[in-house]
Amino acid sequence: MKQLIATQKEFFNTHTTKAVSFRKKQLNTLETVLKENESLLNEAIYGDFKKSGFETYVSELALLYHDIKQAKRNLKNWSGRKRVSTNLLNFPATSYIIPEPLGVCLVIGAWNYPYQLSLAPVVAALAAGNTVVLKPSELPANTSNIIAQLINENFDPRVFKVIEGGVPETTELLKQDFDKIFFTGSTKVGKIVYKAAAETLTPVTLEMGGKSPAFVTEDCNMKMTAKRLVWAKFLNAGQTCIAPDYVMVHERVKDEFLELLKAEIEKERFAFENDNCVQIINDDNFDRLEKMIPQDKIYYGGTLSKESRYIQPTVLQNISFDDAPMQEEIFGPILPVIAYTNVEDAISKVRTFPKPLSCYVFTSDKKTKQKILKEISFGGGAVNDAVMHISNPNLPFGGVGQSGIGSYHGKAGFDCFTHYKSILDKPTWLELPIKYYPHTKNKLKWIKRMMRWQ
Ligand code: NAD
């Protein structure tokens, strides 16, 4: 590892990676490698947790292709120096900002969208002119292998190299001297990464999780709400960082909402049956989720098969904030529904949790919408939809507080791997004497006057 990072640093210091043409070439290579190997990628992820080619394309590869295309289209503009105005005190001068890559970057991926979460930060890092060491999650072993194989066969290791492994390898990587660490995963491990980075004052972006609420008010379009929530919650068997973790529904419409949820799940039955369904990633997570289901509170679902790591989409009712599924991020196909009588109380309850990664508001009432958006702090979200905000690259994606530090995707991704170097550029033909000794009253008067014209 030490040797690899030293080699990447040496290469970075040749300034080769800073050329726009070089960055484009890396992005083109990545795009070609992915496109030419889609069937291998599909096979690997299906082998890990039975994720279908359709879902892999829609929720992983399509996002990567879009990020690559957008980065290539905007590279010249994003990486060019930006002129800004100069204040009177500095006259005569020009002022500008030079975007510069940070250097050698470490990207640590999570398992639940293994291609997208490992490679989207890499797209941003390469576009910004950095070199990258990627450590994908070890849990989906086949996808980790195929990423390593394809990248290490097709990229110069001085620019982009994949190192596979779990906790020991990541711990070792975190001891190395990187210029940036980008981590996706749990809040618990995020803290470990943050502590390690503090030792060397390495800048970090932490993309973590949390309990993302969905509010369903009396006046929403109930049928559409149920449809969109069922899709968002049970996509990838609920193993989505921005999945609605639980629903706060107005008491007066709770029964209607539960009925509609059930109808929507049954409509999608084919996708949710054991044979077609994305699996729970491993036995540990299966056991964790199983313990979370209070048998007396199952409204719908509750069928489990440990052998095939299958949990039927399960809706829980009469849930309180003290129940098991409300004690941690669920990250599985279990949806607790909690009734509220007034929105103020519901907001107060939600705010007892750390700031979530997402929040969703299903309502047609403008005031309620504004109130929830204003009074709850969260990473990002949607109104009358869920999860889909991630698919708009113009919306920076990231958490706040315990759900994350920093954001990425689109231009935000480029910024996340870039230092903006500010320059005041002065000619030598004129120098105003007012800042120099002797410090007279008259000079101070002039400085104060000039400060008014900032
Ligand atoms: P995780 O924190 O267990 O693992 C993430 C990465 O950290 C893996 O590469 C793993 O090898 C490494 N790791 C694990 N333990 C470590 C340790 N002790 N020291 C050093 N490295 C270690 O997370 P996960 O199970 O892969 O993913 C699930 C979590 O990630 C959920 O909380 C979810 O909300 C969150 N997540 C967030 C986003 C986001 O974009 N914000 C996306 C996906 C998942």
From TrEMBL:
The active site is at residues 207, 241. Pfam families: Aldedh. CDD domains: ALDH_YwdH-P39616. GO terms for cellular component: cytoplasm. It comes from Marixanthomonas spongiae. One of its GO terms (molecular function) is aldehyde dehydrogenase (NAD+) activity. Keywords: NAD, Oxidoreductase. InterPro entries: Ald_DH/histidinol_DH, Ald_DH_C, Ald_DH_CS_CYS, Ald_DH_CS_GLU, Ald_DH_N, Aldehyde_DH_dom, Aldehyde_DH_NAD(P). The keyword Oxidoreductase applies. One of its GO terms (biological process) is aldehyde metabolic process. Belongs to the aldehyde dehydrogenase family. The lineage of its organism: Bacteria, Pseudomonadati, Bacteroidota, Flavobacteriia, Flavobacteriales. The keyword NAD applies. This is Aldehyde dehydrogenase. Residues 5-423 form the Aldehyde dehydrogenase domain.
